Write the structure tokens for this entry.
Amino acid sequence: MTTEQFGKASDDQIIGVFDALPDSTGSHHPRDWLLGGSEQAAQALAELAKTEPERLLKLLPRFRPGIHENPVGACLRELARNTQVDTALVAAQIVDAASRGFAGSSFRSDAASAAGSLAKRGALPEALCVLLVRWLEGFEFPTGEDEAKRPKDDEEVGAQSILFGMGSHLVEGREDALLLTALKDGLLRRTPPDVARFRSIVECYLARNPDPRGMRALTWLMPPLIVRGTQEDAQTAVRLLNDPRVLRSRDAVFLLGQMEDRLDTSTFVELALRLSTDESRWFRHAAGELLMLRRLRRPDDLVVRHLVDEIFECGERWKAPDTLVGCAHVASTAWAESDALREIANGYVTAALRSNVDIVTSAGMQVFWRADPLPRSDYTREILRAIIANPRALSTSRSGPLVDALAEHLPYAPDLVCTVAEVLVAQCGSDFGDIRTARAADAPALTEIAVTLHRMPGFREKGLALFEALLDLQVSAAAEIVLEIDRRTAKQAPRRPARRRSRQRRGQS
């Protein structure tokens, strides 16, 4: 049945549907394999939570454990997502269903997901927290699972920042992860936050020696505990990260970045160095980002400062350039987004822009993507000089943000803007006239820079030369300006009066 058909059916008819499609049918109809089973019907019924939540709340107690756990779990999950439904009512339904014998794996996962949705709105009732803890303590870790998944080591590594890029992966939707997530939000949203109780739950979970997927779930859940908790909580996280199965995962990298300020130098450096020697380029890149993050936040940490400087000098123990790329990405982000950190980051960004490794210079060019607007300061002038010194940097990334920044700084640094524009046209010129490339979209702004330079005293010749270079490249924006000038010239030219024929000649004709 569809959601619309469930809406028109009576309560007795709905119960009858699931009597015919018990949980054991799974995703297959017992008589027609082309039709869905209990799972599909449960999802269709759960959609009524959006339009008829009161009806579902009254209907749920009529379902029976062991037979109707799919529809009850699905309905609770969707009811919890409906912010118009009272949190206490849904929480009470979860506890009531559990007390009546609903205890299947799919029901517990759906109920844990529902509790997680409720916890995002506020603290969870005590009865529900007690139930979730009981389920977590009874969770049996699957056997024979693969080790922690590692990120793919492909060509995209180094293309963007890890810590300031796409963000962490969501915790996997396994029952224990869902239970921990709900308890984390449900307890830490209390007034005051019940940090001690959540810490105790985490410690008990760790004591059971969870499998790699469970350990990774904890790395995703630990940051709120670190922020709200004590140094003891930080040590719990360190113990978690010291497990090699955990450290070699994406979420461990994000956890290490978030708790960096809670770790002493030796502990932090040890963990970062373990990542820097990993076989995966992704983790070597991550190590660079973590070390640069520490360098910027703690400028007085001489150990980390020495390590970062050694990375930029391409020391032998670093599997360059991956760690260097990571350092450059964080330095560029800090330069663009933090006035306080720009002084420290500036030297590293200019060093990246002068590098002869393309992915390193590309990371340095990220300052133009992230800074909006580019600050009018000596730091910006140093960045532009670094680009002039290494024209190759211009071909390692798209030119749009750079051209926009040049246009903004033209009144304040016309000499540097003019030189960078000349170098840009010399380095990537053919692309500006080729509509098949992304740089062609930046040609109108570059043409406007040339025209503005031509109007500025002291730069007329350079502006004209730049404009003529764009014409030679067949940039349409430059050609249109020339055509417009020709049209205006033609309109302004004096018209010669028509010649009048003499009377004698008219008579002869």
Notes: Residues 264-388 form one domain.
